[in-house]
């Protein structure tokens, strides 16, 4: 079964889109280097702000007929084929594909309130096409909204990016609880919290170091801490030029850290290399 990673945290600006896009591309690069039989990765953007869509595809004006909006508002029997037809190539790599977000997703949340089965409108069509991809990566919006629930219900692995600041880490437990709620309350046992990613870590800041140390010492959260991405201004410049960190600054500290996160994930899921 292919794996679907959702990046989730109801706080904005913590590095969800940065991690979703660079992890997705990092996985394509790694799987290609390992000569994996299928190195394709699908990035699904569920945030109406379309940041992940914009940096990977160069556009953010997808709409009624060519975006995730089209998939989740389609007749259910057509949803999987519509999903396939809405996927676009990224301009980062031929094996990185994107299901674009749309500003219309904002309206979709309201249109679908109370519609039976609405939270499964991504999981269900995705389950029918996910085997075309080695990994699917889902970026979410900064809230526990219907679209975030759709992302969590479609996923097998949740990664939680968090900034090394006091109030951010205080909110961490509520993010973990939400994931557990989806797994247990919504009977989606395949979903697991596969890691916490500390983003924008500045080792010159005493407060950052203390927070990471207290996370590491925490009996539950400490075991989940899987990656520390350094604060690196190359990340912002890469966004501005619509490039991945690997292409924009291959020798930067953030590039190494995202490559390591991709390696960690591939090791966890033991994707077969070419025999
Ligand atoms: N490692 C990093 N170093 C420096 N800036 C970063 C880093 N990661 C993200 N950023 C910046 O932080 C901002 C928020 O990141 P983003 O990924 O859009 O967060 P989210 O999707 O959680 O709202 C962006 O301006 C981005 O360029
Ligand atoms: Mg974002």
Number of DSSP strand runs: 8
Secondary-structure-based class equals: alpha/beta
Number of helices: 14
* Mean pLDDT rating: 94
Output the CATH class name.
Alpha Beta
Shape: globular
- At the fourth level of CATH, the homologous superfamily is P-loop containing nucleotide triphosphate hydrolases
Low-confidence runs of at least 5 consecutive residues = none
* CATH-level-2 architecture: 3-Layer(aba) Sandwich
Bound molecules: adenosine-5'-diphosphate, magnesium ion
Structural domains: how many: 1
Query: Order of strands across the biggest sheet?
Result: 3-4-2-5-1-6-7-8
Strand content: 15-25%
Straight-line distance between termini: 19 Å
Largest sheet: 8 strands, mixed
Helix and strand topology:
Blueprint: E1 3-7, H1 16-33, E2 41-45, H2 51-57, H3 68-73, H4 79-86, E3 88-89, E4 96-99, H5 105-112, H6 123-129, E5 135-139, H7 146-153, E6 157-162, H8 166-170, H9 172-185, E7 192-201, H10 206-217, H11 221-224, E8 225-230, H12 233-240, H13 245-248, H14 253-269
Parallel strand pairs: 1-5, 1-6, 2-4, 2-5, 6-7, 7-8
Antiparallel strand pairs: 3-4
The structure holds adenosine-5'-diphosphate (ADP) and magnesium ion.
Adenosine-5'-diphosphate binds at residues 12-18, 51, 142, 199-200, 229, 231-232, 235-236, 239, 254.
């Amino acid at each position: 079964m292919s794996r679907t990673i959702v990046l989730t945290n109801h706080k904005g600006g913590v590095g969800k889109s940065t991690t979703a896009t660079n992890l997705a591309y990092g996985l394509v690069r790694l799987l290609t280097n390992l000569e994996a039989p299928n190195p394709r990765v699908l990035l699904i953007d569920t945030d109406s702000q379309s940041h992940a869509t914009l940096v990977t595809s160069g556009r953010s004006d997808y709409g009624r007929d060519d975006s995730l909006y089209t998939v989740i508002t389609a007749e259910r029997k057509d949803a999987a084929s519509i999903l396939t037809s809405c996927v676009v190539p990224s301009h980062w790599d031929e094996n990185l594909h994107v299901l674009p977000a749309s500003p219309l997703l904002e309206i979709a949340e309201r249109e679908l309130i109370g519609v039976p089965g609405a939270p499964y409108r991504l999981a269900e069509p995705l389950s029918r096409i996910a085997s075309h991809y080695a990994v699917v990566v889902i970026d979410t919006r900064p809230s526990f909204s219907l679209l975030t629930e759709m992302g969590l219900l479609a996923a097998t692995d949740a990664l939680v990016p968090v900034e090394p600041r006091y109030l951010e880490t205080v909110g961490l437990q509520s993010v973990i609880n939400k994931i557990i709620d989806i797994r247990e309350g919504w009977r989606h046992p395949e979903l697991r919290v596969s890691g916490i990613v500390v983003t924008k870590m500045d080792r010159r800041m005493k407060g950052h170091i203390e927070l990471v140390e207290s996370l590491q010492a925490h009996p539950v959260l400490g075991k989940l801490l899987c990656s520390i991405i350094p604060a690196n201004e190359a990340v912002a410049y890469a966004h501005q030029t619509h490039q991945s960190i690997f292409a924009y600054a291959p020798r930067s500290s953030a590039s190494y850290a995202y490559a390591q996160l991709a390696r960690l994930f591939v090791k966890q899921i033991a994707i077969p290399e070419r025999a």
